[in-house]
Amino acid sequence: MQTIDLDILRLEDGHRILDLGCGRGRHTHAAYFHRRCHSVGLDLGLEDVLTTQSGFLENPDLEPQTGHPRRYDLMVGDALSLPFPDNYFDRLICSEVLEHIPDYGGALAEIWRITKPGGRIGISVPHRWPEQICWLLSRDYYDTPGGHVRIFKRGVLRQDIENMGFKYLTRRHTHGLHSPYWWLKCAVGVDNNDHVLVRGYRRLLEAEILHNPKALRLLSRLADPLMGKSLVMYFDKPEDA
User: Fold this and answer.
1) What is the spatial distance between Cα 126 and Cα 51, in angstroms, rounded to a whole number?
2) Cα angle vertex 1, ends 213, 186, to 5°?
C-alpha cells in the first residue's frame, strides 16, 4: 500500500531516496523497484528494519544490472538526528511519521538539511477529520507508547514546512476506503482483529491492495477526496537554497 506517489515525486534512475520512518518498508521497497536508484530506509525500531530487510531477501532484484545500479541500505536511526551529511538525498519520503514525534519541527529541520537543493519531498500525515473520529471513539488508538501525539491542521503543517524554505507543490487525500475500517476497529476495540466485521472489511481492503478490481477503484476515487485517511503534500527544495 503506497501513500506517496513516486511519479509525483519524480523519482528517477540514479537518485538517492530516503524513506524516513520506513516502518515495514512499503515505500523503501516501492522506490527500489520503481527506478534504478539507491533506496535508503530508516526507522527508530529495529524490528521494523529487519522486516524491511526480509522483504528484499524474499523478493530479490532479478533484472540485469545495466545502467545505474539498484541499491538499498537499511538502518536504525532517530528523525531528530539523522546520520547523513547535508544536501545528501535527491528525494525524501516521510509517510505517517510526524504525528508520532513531539518535536516534529526538529524532524522538519533535519529533512531540510539532508535534502539536496532541487530535491523533492513527499510528506503524509493522518487527515484531520477522519483522525478526529478515531480519537473520539478510542483512546487506545492513539494513547500508546509511540502512538499519535497530535492531529495536524493542513494549513499549519504546510506553513511549518514552507517556513523551512520548501516550496509547496500540490496535495491530495488517499486511502479513502481505509477510514471506515479504522472507525470500525476503534468502535469494537483496536486490538479486536477477530471481530467478524473487522475481518470482513479487512478482506475488502486486501482485495483493493492486491487485486484492485474496477468496482473498488471507482469507490476509492469517490472516497479519497471525501474521507481519505491520509493527507499527502509534496514540496521542492529550491535550487538556490
Assistant:
1) 23
2) 95
Amino acid symbol at 240? D
Mean pLDDT of 122-148: 96
Q: Which residues contact 162 (CB under 8 A, 6 or more apart)?
A: 168, 235
Among the listed ranges 109-118, 136-145, 228-237, which one has the minimum average pLDDT value?
Answer: 136-145
Residue 193 to residues 146, 164, 186, 229: CA-CA distances in angstroms?
Answer: 20, 41, 11, 19
Cα separation, 70 vs 37, in Å, equals 5
Only one residue has cell 491542521, namely 153
* CA 47 to mean position of chain CA atoms: 18
CATH class of 16-134+144-175+227-236: alpha beta
Name the one residue in this structure whose C-alpha cell is 536511526.
77
pLDDT at 161: 98
Record the cell numbers describing residue 149, joined without a space: 501525539
Could you give the CA distance from residue 94 to residue 22 in angstroms, rounded to a whole number? 8
Helical spans, DSSP H, in the chain? 26-34, 46-58, 104-114, 128-137, 154-164, 178-188, 196-210, 214-227
Amino acid (1-letter code) at residue 64: P
Burial class (CB in 10 A: 0-12, 13-18, 19+), 101: buried
Q: How far is CA 204 from the centre of its chain?
A: 21
DSSP 8-state assignment for residue 16: E
φ/ψ region of 14 (left if φ > 0, alpha if ψ in -120 to 50, else beta) reads left
Question: What residue type is assigned to position 5 of the chain?
Answer: D
pTM score: 0.94
Give the span between the Cα atoms of 86 and 83, in whole angstroms: 10
